[in-house]
């Protein structure tokens, strides 16, 4: 009898393939409006005039850059605002007896949800997942969801943030008895070569009487390894298993196992969840750093904003996989999502491709940006958000440490560590320079870049450089003179100039028109920085035993923080990445490949097209390679061999080469045999457009994406490295534009609304996403090509062609009509058949016809004052020795403070005036180092001889002292300075001047010496 009962019990634990959990893609067919009206929450509303779209969606990115944009310099001058989303969905009668959750992976920020006009709840934090049980509000048939997203208070972050439902949404339908969301916790308390222990915990919601609970473990190949099925006696079931010969997860071998957790009623599956996990061991040592699976490993990581890259915050999974794989290809083994959690698909991809994740929850634990989460909601919400974060992410094999904050300090830190440890006792806690005394791992940001820190630090706990190094590069731009963001700082490692005098003299903006000394592009020779070069810092990390590793700032360029390094508008993005914001690889990317990858590689810089350079000018030619040695050839003649070294300034092979036109070629050898070669040939003016397509396959709920790359080539197919002509696109069929991006930090063209994007140093990109159920699509590309300045040639070519993207598209009859005298090419255009010549100041206008119908209208102006600025060795002399200038008119102005240009000799784009009224001006300054005293000066002017216009000086909202402003002798042009010494904390600092009842003088800028 006992044997029969056992057989029957085992039989009832056999799984059914008809699991009752349903997860429904909720991304498509939303309605959106960028307005605010309480009536938008109603169940019945005519939204036919609203935009129809699919999420992920980022309305701020779609609106684009605007002078005076709500997010300020930190947000790249993008806007905020209040937007509403609505969606209609059908519910079957049988679903009303179940539990239905609406799950959001990310809504920025202050989201509120209504179902059929019933208010559900609010979630302030924009970077956290959340879900609501909406069961009791549903009805059979048509239902309505409304979502209000409130970004009225700005800036709400120190960098660009998205606005809207920027991450996936799904509807989850389960039985009343089901596995509680985020409750499964898979632990591996012991791992050795022969066996590993696995503990699977869960929480069951609902009645459990007469139910069973089963857990199965599957190998990476999908083979069932073990299972356990028992009567459900508790709402908190916990099973233990033993897995023989566990295969370990690592960046080199990201092996994943799977647990299938089921609730059973007889043979029927009531609920089922699949959870992937991995086996790995992590150990931290103060003297030897980080250990993974018993090996001492250097963390070769990058910091990465969710918004880094070409699409703002609205990432689809195919594009996100492309982004993360691009970083992985550089050789990284770790990533720090800075400074917030990301949607779950990020961690899924990191699990799969092998990236260790320092998972981070907050930027600050109090206000850092004027209206951020730290100010608006942290005190009331941090526990709920930390619980969601850790319980959601803790099963990911990729996550190896929790980070609680960034450049912040508060008495709440010990409580946060304890709270987090109760949710996950298996991992340690750190922060990016926040309360290091309370963390398990000491994280240090920019201060870890200094010679004094590296050579003089005594550590009492394991250390990780959470944000270093900080270096800048503009793809395609070179300088031989070292550039320091804040002038050379004390305690830094030396970074000598490459040549005695500068040899390159082109800029994005004429230095006479710069607003401050930061408005230069940044050199790709790895000689533009805050404190240290990328090469030197890698040497430090590699050779310092206690140094666990680095997270460089950053992987990709990102929108925002445009004033911090680059001086503000027209700059609207941050150029600290190894890839630019279009995803084009910078020279820096290849430096890291040479150090962090083993597959033979070679990369040479700079290009070999220098039409304005005097013949014989000596150019430093660098080659990054992981081969034994490299040989350089100019026009077939060997210039000798060099070997990549281990000392920082020998990591590149280097030759000093007198310039002459021709072919520069580098050949890499291993064991005396050629393994790789690369070359540049001097290019003539651009005359053709090369277009390539990269397809990113659909996955999960996301359709296929495409990256369309355009490059300017000369007639011999050489890249013209200064190409800056506009590329026009006509998109046809079942695809939608996500973005157009070229990496240019000063290009104001809309990335989503325009039909063109200019080449930037010869390249640009179009990002497309398939519409649901797409069948076919193609694009027409067109460009009026030539040297913008007509310096090397005045010959112009017009290139247009059809590019097939998806399905079978009929080829078209394309024709071009153009004018060079200002006439309308539609009515007076000549048929384009061959290249033609133009003179200085000519605007070429053209139209492209497809089968006789106009599909594109184009124009391009050529002349000596067009395009890049070309100067000489004295073009930037006026900025020599200048400190850091922070323009008052770019600050946060309150009360009677207003921006003005009604004076003379002001710096930047204007100044701030009060006109007898009361108000304040607030400056923002980022301190990448440790806390310290800084000498400052406020530039001001007034002519009220008997008034001192006293203003209160605040630092980070703390009163410092009252400053008096003596009369300067004029209201028009007589500017003077009043000094101050302020102790800036590490990280973000706000400096505010506030009137005290006597109004204020003109305030021009804050000058930091």
Automatic annotation (TrEMBL):
InterPro entries documented for this protein: Beta-gal/glucu_dom_sf, CBM6, DUF4982, Galactose-bd-like_sf, GH, GH29D-like_dom, GH2_Domain-Containing, Glyco_hydro_2
SUPFAM superfamilies attached to this UniProt entry: (Trans)glycosidases (SSF51445), beta-Galactosidase/glucuronidase domain (SSF49303), Galactose-binding domain-like (SSF49785)
GO biological process: carbohydrate metabolic process
The CBM6 domain, residue ranges: 884-1009
Top-rank taxon, per record: Bacteria
Keywords assigned: Glycosidase, Hydrolase, Signal
Molecular functions (GO terms): carbohydrate binding; hydrolase activity, hydrolyzing O-glycosyl compounds
Signal peptide stretch: 1-19
Family affiliation: Belongs to the glycosyl hydrolase 2 family.
Protein name: Beta-galactosidase
């Amino acid at each position: 009898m006992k044997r029969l009962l056992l057989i029957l019990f085992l039989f009832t634990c056999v799984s059914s393939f008809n699991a009752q959990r349903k997860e429904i893609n909720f991304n498509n067919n939303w309605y959106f409006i960028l307005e605010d009206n309480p009536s938008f929450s109603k169940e019945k509303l005519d939204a036919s005039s609203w935009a129809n779209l699919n999420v992920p969606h980022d309305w701020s990115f779609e609106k684009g850059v605007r002078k005076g944009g709500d997010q300020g310099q930190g947000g790249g001058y993008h806007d905020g605002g209040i937007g509403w989303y609505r969606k209609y969905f059908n519910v079957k009668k049988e679903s009303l007896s179940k539990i239905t959750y609406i799950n959001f992976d990310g809504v920025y920020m202050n989201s509120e949800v209504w179902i059929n006009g019933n208010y559900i709840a609010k979630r302030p934090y924009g970077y956290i997942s959340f879900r609501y049980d909406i069961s009791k509000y549903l009805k059979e048939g048509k239902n309505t969801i409304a979502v209000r997203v409130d970004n009225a208070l700005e800036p709400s972050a120190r960098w660009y943030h998205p606005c809207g439902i920027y991450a996936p949404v799904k509807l989850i339908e389960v039985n009343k008895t089901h596995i509680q969301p985020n409750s499964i916790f898979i632990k591996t308390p012991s791992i050795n070569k022969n066996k590993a222990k696995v503990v699977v915990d869960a929480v069951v919601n609902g009645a459990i009487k007469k139910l069973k609970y089963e857990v199965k473990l599957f190998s990476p190949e999908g083979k069932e390894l073990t299972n356990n099925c028992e009567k459900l006696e508790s709402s908190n079931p916990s099973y233990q298993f033993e897995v023989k010969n566990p295969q370990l997860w690592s960046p080199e071998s990201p092996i994943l196992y799977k647990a299938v957790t089921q609730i059973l009623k007889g043979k029927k599956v009531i609920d089922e969840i699949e959870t992937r996990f991995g086996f790995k061991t992590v150990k931290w040592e103060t003297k030897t750093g980080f250990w993974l699976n018993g090996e001492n490993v250097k963390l070769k990581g990058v910091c990465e904003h969710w918004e880094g890259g070409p699409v703002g915050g609205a990432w689809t999974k195919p594009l996100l996989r492309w982004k993360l794989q691009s970083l992985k290809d550089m050789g990284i083994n770790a990533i720090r999502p800075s400074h917030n959690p990301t949607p779950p698909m990020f961690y899924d991809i990191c699990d799969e491709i092998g990236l260790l994740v320092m998972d981070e929850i907050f930027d600050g634990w109090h206000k850092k940006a004027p209206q951020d989460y730290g100010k608006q909601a942290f005190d009331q919400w941090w526990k709920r958000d930390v619980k969601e974060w850790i319980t959601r992410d803790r099963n990911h094999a990729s996550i190896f440490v929790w980070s609680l904050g960034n450049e912040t300090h508060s008495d709440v830190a010990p409580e946060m560590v304890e709270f987090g440890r109760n949710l996950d006792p298996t991992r340690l806690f750190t922060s990016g320079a926040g309360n290091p005394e309370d963390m398990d791992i000491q994280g240090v940001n920019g201060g870890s870049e200094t010679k004094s820190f590296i050579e003089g630090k005594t550590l009492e706990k394991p250390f990780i450089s959470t944000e270093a190094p900080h270096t800048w590069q503009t793809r395609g731009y070179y300088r031989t003179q070292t550039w320091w963001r804040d002038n050379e700082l004390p305690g830094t490692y030396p970074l000598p100039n490459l040549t005695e005098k500068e040899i390159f003299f082109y800029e994005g903006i004429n230095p006479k028109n710069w607003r401050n000394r930061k408005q230069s592009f940044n050199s790709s020779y790895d000689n533009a920085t805050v404190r240290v070069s990328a090469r030197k810092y890698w040497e430090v990390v590699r050779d310092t035993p206690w140094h666990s590793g680095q997270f460089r700032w950053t992987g990709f360029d990102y929108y925002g923080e445009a004033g911090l390094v680059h001086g503000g508008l027209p700059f609207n993005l941050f150029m600290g990445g190894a890839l630019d914001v279009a995803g084009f690889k910078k020279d820096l990317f290849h430096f890291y490949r040479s150090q962090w990858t083993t597959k033979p590689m070679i990369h040479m810089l700079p290009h070999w097209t220098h039409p304005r350079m005097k013949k014989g000018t000596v150019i430093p030619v660098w080659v990054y390679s992981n081969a034994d040695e490299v040989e350089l050839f100019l026009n077939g003649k060997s210039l000798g061999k060099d070997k990549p070294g281990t000392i920082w300034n020998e990591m590149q092979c280097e030759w000093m080469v007198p310039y002459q036109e021709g072919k520069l070629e580098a050949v890499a050898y291993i064991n005396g045999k050629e393994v790789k070669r690369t070359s540049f040939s001097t290019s003539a003016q651009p005359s053709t457009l090369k277009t390539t397509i990269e397809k990113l396959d659909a996955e999960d709920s996301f359709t296929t994406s495409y990256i369309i790359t355009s490059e300017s080539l000369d007639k011999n197919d050489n890249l013209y490295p200064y190409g800056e002509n506009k590329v026009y696109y006509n998109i046809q069929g079942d695809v939608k534009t996500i973005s157009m991006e070229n990496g240019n930090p000063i290009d104001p063209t809309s990335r989503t609304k325009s039909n063109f994007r200019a080449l930037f140093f010869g390249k640009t990109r179009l990002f497309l996403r398939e519409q649901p159920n797409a069948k076919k699509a193609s694009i027409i590309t067109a460009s009026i090509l030539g040297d913008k300045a007509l310096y090397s040639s005045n010959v112009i070519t017009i290139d247009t062609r059809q590019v097939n993207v998806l399905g079978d598209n009929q080829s078209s009859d394309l024709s071009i009509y153009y004018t060079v005298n200002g006439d309308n090419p539609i009515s007076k255009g000549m048929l384009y058949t061959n290249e033609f010549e133009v003179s200085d100041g000519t605007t070429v206008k053209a139209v492209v016809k497809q089968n006789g119908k106009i599909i594109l209208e184009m124009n391009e102006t050529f002349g000596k004052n067009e395009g890049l600025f070309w100067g000489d060795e004295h073009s930037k002399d006026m900025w020599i020795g200048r400190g850091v200038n922070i323009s008052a008119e770019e600050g946060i102005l309150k009360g009677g403070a207003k921006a003005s240009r009604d004076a003379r000799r002001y710096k930047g784009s204007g100044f701030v005036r009060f006109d007898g009224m009361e108000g304040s001006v607030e400056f923002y300054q980022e301190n990448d180092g440790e806390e310290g005293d800084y000498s400052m000066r406020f530039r001001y002017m007034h002519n009220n001889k008997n008034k001192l216009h006293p203003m209160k000086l605040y630092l980070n909202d703390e009163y410092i002292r009252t400053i008096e402003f003596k009369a300067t002798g004029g209201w028009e042009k007589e500017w003077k300075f009043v000094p101050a010494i302020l102790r800036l904390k590490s990280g973000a600092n706000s400096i505010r001047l506030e009137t005290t009842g006597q109004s204020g003088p003109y305030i021009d800028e804050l000058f930091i010496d």
